[in-house]
L1 transposable element RRM domain-containing protein
Amino acid sequence: MGKKQGRKAGNSKNKSASPPAKELSSSPATDQSWTENDFDETRVERFSPSNFSELKEELRTQRKETKNLEKRVEELIARVINAEKVINEMTEMKTMTREIRDKCTSFSNRLDQLEERISAIEDQMNEMKREEKSKEKRRKRNEQSLQEVWDYVKRPNLRLIGVPESEGENGTKWENTLQDIIQENFPNLVG
């Protein structure tokens, strides 16, 4: 065996003895159990020309994973921002609903007051109608009484056609004429 082959064989032994690259950062317990020599050997092993292409590939995959993680983080940040906006909008809506509820309560109270006033006015109107009915009855009764009084007062003011009116205060002529008419028409009444 040559020196190079021996190194390769030694490297392959070191590879099998040391944990893979992904395991290096996998758990803190593993990191603590390594000694400084193991760490130096791993470092040397990583930078050896045979592992360079593997390291390069691993860097590419880690870069892709990092980009994917960055995109994921940006998406999560955007979602958080949208969630904050939604929360702010919901808070505003909650405030608006409180204001609307307060206004509705105020309107409800005002409506209750208006209903009470309307009820009081309706009661007053009903009372006024009752009073109006009693006034109407009194008015009709008064009109009837007035008519009766008028008829009574008007009765002595009858005019007899063909009977001359008395002149002056002397009403004897008229009384005599009336007595004559009654005797002619109703002879049984005078007696």
Notes: DSSP finds six helices and no strands in the chain.
